[in-house]
Amino acid sequence: MNLWLANFLAYWLQVAVISVAAALAARACRLGSPRAALLSWQALLGLFLLLPVFEPWTAEPGGMTAISIAAAAAARVPSARPGHLSLLPLGGALLAAGMAARLIWLAMGYARLCRWRREARCLDAHQSVIAPFRVAAGVTLDMYLSSRIAAPVTFGLWHPTVLLPVRWLALKPGLQSAIVCHECLHVRRKDWGFHVAEEIIRATLWFHPAVWWLIAEIRLAREQVVDRTVIRLTGTRRPYVEALLAFAGVPSDSVVAAAAFSHRHHLARRISSIFEEVAMKKSRLVLSLAAITLCLVAAGALAIRTFPLYVQQQRAHRVSESGVVAPRVLYKVDPKYTQDARDAKIQGTVVMSVEVHPDGKAHNLKIERALDPGLDQNALDAVSAWRFQPGTKDGRPVPVKASIEINFRLL
User: Fold this and answer.
1) In the chain, where does the domain assigned CATH 3.30.2420.10 lie?
2) So what CATH class is 324-408?
């Protein structure tokens, strides 16, 4: 079994289990606050990144559950043969290639946005529509009219830019104002920085569909937060919904590295959120978040326990090495005589080699000198139950190889 591939599969399954639990919990609790939903989804995305860092890794292959054994066996790699590529470098190259392709695609998208900005014309003649919302949002930004885009696009962190499509000029003043207000709020919230960070995370974890789903939920919640703020500032719902519908038919992938004004597959949920807006009581919100958190903690614990990550075991040291102190037996179980061995009057010594790890248990037990199959097995079972004071090297607990003799004598 290849350790790298087994860990990759285990991490994939951990993320999948937690994602399913999050989706079910969110659906059951029905969070009425887009802001709370946004923070929850962002926290979950951060959890996915930090999961391998903070979860306990185990160095005991024997501790695998039946499910994790099956998962690890699926990642078993045959030894390389002449003329055949090993799956390990091939898999690593595939992951790196997918990440590089996604990042290159994003860089090309950003370069295209910069080119469109240079080709666009400034909207100085429409300051009466733009200025009030720019002042209300407290932002400094440049707005341009571009014939290269089909929907409004906001990008840039230090020098934010808003590109509006040519069709924006043909809209009613109320719809124009709603669109400008929407984009100004994105600038004030610095959403483009979050957008880029999410795309980098998506590029890193491109192989997992749960990450794509989660980022889509984050984008939807962010738009819903902005939607509610726009309605509060403008005081009208219907013109804003008309502005959303005005760009409902544009391709959602027409622009990369920046968020479009309205994604078609999110439109229905955004409009429903606008017209069914219900103020969620603080107590209910706290209870809902607590229930979701408990659900995710339980799902995470189950996923980590069922699909653990494994660390490469340390090299076992020998007592003869400089600075190595041998382990000492703290608790001993005597092996039992088998009835067949007793009837055959078999006596003698079973010699086995073991590795005593820092957990105080014997690992990798191996019979070096056998006596009788039944007695050999009883000796292995007995020593497996022994507990040791771990051996050390320079005062630090380390795995230490030891030889143990088990004597069988008839009384």
Assistant:
1) 324-408
2) alpha beta
